[in-house]
Design a protein that fits this description.
By secondary structure, the protein is an alpha/beta fold. It has helices at about 15-20, 50-60, 105-115, 220-225, 230-245, 290-305, 315-345, 350-365, 365-380; strands spanning about 5-10, 30-35, 45-50, 70, 75-80, 85-90, 100-105, 120-125, 125-135, 135-145, 145-160, 170-185, 195-200, 200-210, 210-220, 250-270, 275, 280-285. The model has no long low-confidence stretch (mean pLDDT about 90).
């Protein structure tokens, strides 16, 4: 007999969302987290939650606890050194907002606190070293307080991209890029507009965050490391040159950090009764802000598949095959969309710059096409 019906590896937003989504399923659910506590993480990355993710978080009962968030009412897309732009508008899309900006640390902490009210066996400070199949269960070997432990489950959901390298078969593409994140101020109010500007090194996004702006700036790793070390005045000068003057004078940089970018795709679980979700299933380029939103949809759909399955069949091949088939279109579309944007818009090739400008102008002039893009970014392939 299994110790758990579902055992989640990874207590980040996606893993916590999966455990919360199962809180009324009358199942034995466990969650293993490598960190020692549920205290607020120090991760400075800004997250743009789609309206579709808001609906999921409302159903999980934690949306109100995240307030206040900064809504995105419009998205302005352009390219540096070339013509073409497009604006996406929440009112045109018949949505209350195109998205909402929140710090990753606050989102992770709020979801983790939500687990305190859920019937979930939460174990922190646990390092997982291996997963193997043993008949009708999966066996998880882990270490806590210098002691080796073993737990079994009908289904193991890996929600931590770095938790278990051999649990999934992963394909990787190194973008040879890094993202610089920071908070900046501007002399012109942002008016809840998010800016996505494509530069020769990569996309530059400025998202409304409170009264300030959250920056996600893509460039080569060498430039990113150097840029995080230069004086504030030089950083702002380079940012102003890359972004332009649409928001007036940029000032007041805080919380600079950088991290490398790569596409990682788990094509298949490496062991029976194991499924990958979130960053363990796919780690995407931050352009268009699709990664975490796709992961939350992974968690919600997996919870629905578990709840719709007989208890004895949880984690079986039929259940997992059905879940993967349902996620294939949304997952594949999200991977293709962000990878295409990252590769086609991170260069300064003149013919491509001209074609990109034409594409942006055409999209801006075609309301049905804009609506299609917004619906897919908001709700995924089922939008």
């Amino acid at each position: 007999m299994a110790d758990y019906d579902v055992l989640v590896i990874g207590g980040g937003p996606v893993g916590a969302a999966l455990a919360l989504a199962l809180r009324e399923a009358a199942l034995a659910v466990g969650l293993l987290e490598a960190r020692r506590s549920r205290a607020a993480r120090s991760d400075p990355r800004p997250i743009a939650l789609s309206y579709g993710s808001r609906l999921i978080l409302e159903r999980l009962g934690i949306w109100e606890s995240l307030q206040p968030l900064t809504p995105i009412m419009r998205i302005h897309v352009s390219q540096r050194g070339g013509f073409g732009r497009v604006e996406l508008d929440a009112a045109e899309a018949r949505l209350p907002a195109l998205g909402y900006v929140v710090d990753y640390a606050r989102l992770a902490e709020t979801l983790a606190h939500g687990l305190e009210r859920a019937p979930c066996d939460y174990l922190s400070g646990v390092t997982v070293s291996g997963v193997s199949a043993e008949g009708d269960v999966a066996s998880v070997e882990c270490k806590r307080d210098e002691s080796i432990r073993r737990a079994t489950a009908r289904l193991v959901a890996v929600a931590d991209g770095g938790a278990l390298a051999d649990a999934t078969r992963v394909r990787t593409r190194d973008y040879r890029q890094a993202a610089v994140t920071a908070r900046v101020s501007s002399s012109v109010p942002h008016r809840n507009v998010a800016y996505e500007r494509f530069t020769p090194e990569g996309p530059l996004a400025l998202l409304p965050s409170g009264d300030a702006l959250a920056l996600i700036w893509t460039m080569t790793p060498g430039h990113a490391q150097a840029l995080c070390a230069v004086p504030e005045s030089e950083f702002l000068q380079r940012l102003q040159a890359a972004f332009g003057g649409r928001l007036g004078r940029l000032s007041g940089v805080g919380g600079r950090a950088w991290f490398p970018l790569a596409l990682r795709i788990a094509s298949r679980a490496g062991a029976p009764r194991v499924v990958a979700v979130g960053n363990a299933a796919q780690t995407l380029h931050p352009v268009a802000g699709q990664g975490l939103n796709l992961g939350l949809r992974d968690a919600w759909e997996l919870a629905a598949a578990i709840e719709g399955c007989e208890r004895e069949k949880i984690g079986g091949a039929a259940m997992l095959d059905s879940y993967r088939a349902r996620r294939q279109l949304d997952r594949g579309g999200g991977i293709w969309f962000t990878d295409m944007l990252a590769r086609l818009f991170s260069n300064d090739i003149a013919p491509l710059r001209f074609v990109r400008g034409l594409a942006l102008e055409a999209l801006g002039a075609a309301p049905p096409a804009k609506d299609f893009v917004v619906r897919r970014m908001t709700f995924g392939a089922r939008g």
